[in-house]
Amino acid sequence: MSALNDSATDSVHNRRTEVRRLIDAMEHAKVISDGHFSALGMLITDASLSADEPALVECQDGLQWLHRHYLDIDALDAPQREQRGRILGLIDVVHWALKRLPSGLQLALQPEGHAARFLVAVSRRPGMSNRQLATELGTDETEISRVGRKLLSAGVVWRRKEWRHNAWDLTPRGRQYLETSGLLPAGTETGPEADAVADAGPGRRAEPARPAETATRSPDGVPRRRPASGPARPQEPPRPARG
After folding, report:
1. CA–CA separation, 32 vs 83, rounded Å?
2. Which of helix, strand or coil describes residue 176?
3. How confident is the model at residue 206 (pLDDT cuts 50, 70, 90)?
4. Can you tell me whether residue 217 is helix, strand or coil?
5. Are 55 and 47 in contact (CB under 8 A)?
6. Do 125 and 98 form a contact (C-beta atoms < 8 A)?
7. End-to-end CA distance of the chain
8. By C-alpha distance, which of 42, 43, 22, 20 is closest to 32?
9. Quick check: helix, strand or coil at residue 216?
10. Cα dist. 8→11, 21, 100, 147, 199 in Å?
11. In whole angstroms, what is the distance from residue 67 CA to residue 27 CA?
């Protein structure tokens, strides 16, 4: 688990460093290219999905610094006006990304409430439908739809369509909220692994699947079964017929 935490920390540090490097390149460029804006836009998207607050703050500060340069110019030409507009647009995007971080959501979910149990259930079984969630939470589908809309607007779940049914998944932001709020301890098994652990029972490990059996035939033609792995039993020679 410590290795995973170290990897996440390195990723956050690298993204923040990349933002700083890119902002510096944009500041010293005579003309900010489309490539600069595209690269920064992708970094903002990744930071938002990963709830990377340090990288978003670094980006916001850098963009505001870039925008100040245009305030010192009395008459902007057309390319400069376009660049200033794109910078202002990115500032707005970063502003709302910071507003929707788990630390700023202020969901304050009660552990036994429907919203908290909704998140925990989806984290353990991604793709659950409204009907499955209603059964899991002991409520009706109308309540599930209401809770789902609330969590969807907070950016902690995704909703997709599978035929005529909704399928709910947890976002990276939602996972971080569960871990920071204590609703889902860090390192808790999720997805298919959680189902295997639950089936095994508390304090037990899930057993690996047993090898399939294959059919063999005895000398008298009666089918017998033996495991696919391991040596087969030696066949006995047929007994002589009695006279």
Report:
1. 7
2. helix
3. very low
4. strand
5. yes
6. no
7. 74
8. 22
9. strand
10. 5, 20, 20, 30, 30
11. 10
Quick: pLDDT tens for 165-201: 889 999 888 888 888 888 776 555 555 545 444 444 4
Domain span(s) for CATH 1.10.10.10 in the chain? 114-200
Would the pTM count as exceeding 0.90? no
Q: How many CB atoms lie within 10 A of CB 23?
A: 20
The pLDDT tens digits of the residues spanning 17-38 come to 999 999 999 999 888 999 999 9
Q: Quote the CA–CA distance of 155 and 174 in Å, as a whole number.
A: 7
Question: At residue 229, what is the residue type?
Answer: S
User: Which residue is it, tokens 């005895």?
Assistant: 218
CA distances from 79 to 32, 90, 208 (A): 10, 17, 63
Beta bridge partners of 159: 168
Burial status of residue 143 (CB atoms within 10 A of its CB: 0-12, 13-18, 19 or more): middle
Per CATH, the number for 114-200 is 1.10.10.10
- Phi, psi values for residue 224, rounded to 5°: -125, 160
The one-letter amino acid code at 33 reads: S
Strand partners of residue 128? 168
